[in-house]
Structures are given as structure tokens and as C-alpha cells.
Amino acid sequence: MNADWASFEHSLDTAGHAVLPALLTPDQCAELAALYPKSEGFRSRVVMERHGFGRGEYKYFDYPLPPLLDRLRHELYPRLAPIANRWNALLGTDTRYPDRLDEYLQRCHQAGQTRPTPLILQYQAGDYNCLHQDLYGEHVFPLQLTILLSRAGEDFIGGEFVMTETASSGQRAEVVVLDQGDAVVFAVNHRPAQGRRGGTRKVAMRHGVSRLRSGRRHTIGLIFHDAI
């Protein structure tokens, strides 16, 4: 993680998302994408069309997570927790997050949120993901990642990562351009934003994926809270 963290944090504050370029190597992306057809290592498979989520499918990893994802989850959480705590303070929310991921997961598990949430998604031509929020229970860490495993323009065409924000002042949509191995860190639910007349306003965030025109697209979703 060689990102300019000050610029990264500024992007999160002003846009609700920020890109970590080349978080994974092409070999690491291929290694993770190759897990999708396997049956072991996953706790469930979801076909999105059956639930009105869009088209495509995804699988939730089971514990123990693949070592690479477990390492990323533990390394990124301590960098993101101070941002999450600052956001909650600005929004007037009492919740504060501990310094270490294991302490936070213990909090989730004590509340009955014991199922792992990291997932791998697969899209093929015509597939898309409706705008949504990944909540899963009472305890929600306000930042998460999506990592693109496939090569845009080569493995697939279309399938852009899309974010929207809604506030009292209106709505805004943005396409986040990713290359293979890039990760976008983004707000799960709400983020603080500067009000037009000063002070802080709450902005609701949602994310999704536009329709894939051709090929196949794999991504990783790295979520820090566990599910009920």
C-alpha cells in the first residue's frame, strides 16, 4: 500500500470514495479469480436475479478466509478506523471503532454477527448489480473495498463501478474507473459532507455495477463487519 494517504483520505472526505491503485498484482488477481468455480472455502452462493439484486452471482467466503484476503482485511482496517471514527464524530454518532480488527470482530460476534462477509462476485454479458448498501446487522463498519480482479477492456467491456449519493441538496452519480488490481474504498451507508451554509450534513451512499456488455468480470468485496 504505497498510496499517498493524505490524498486518499481527502478523496474519501470529499467524494465518499478513493482508489488504491495496484493493491493486488495480476498474479494475485488471477489466483483469487480461480477460486470462484470451487466449492470449498465458501459459506453460500447467491444468484442475484432470484432476490431482485440485479443479474450475476456471488459467493461469500467462509472462515478461515484465504490468507491474502485475511491479511488485507487486517492491514487495511487500522488505517481506516481513524477515518471512520472521525466521520462518526462529525455525524454526531457515539459509535467508535477499536484500533484492531480482531477487537471489532469480537464486538460483532458478541452481537450475533458471526458470519464472514468478504465475497467474490462474477458477472457475465448482460449482468449488473443494483444500487445497494452492504449492512448485515447492528454493527456496520462505515468503509469497505471492491477490488477488480479482471482486465477492463480485455476480459470484459462495460461493468463500470457506480456510486450515488443522496442528500437534501439533491443527488449525484459517479463512475469509478478501475484497472486490474485496483481497489476502491467507499462509504457503506452514510458519510459526512460540508453543508452549503457551514456545518456538516449527512449524505447517503449506494454502490452498484452497470450492465456488462461482453466478457466476464470478477471482483472481491472486502467488508469489515460480519453478518447475522
From TrEMBL:
Name used for this protein in its record: 2OG-Fe(II) oxygenase
Pfam family, one: Oxygenase-NA
Origin: domain of life: Bacteria
Species for this entry: Variovorax dokdonensis
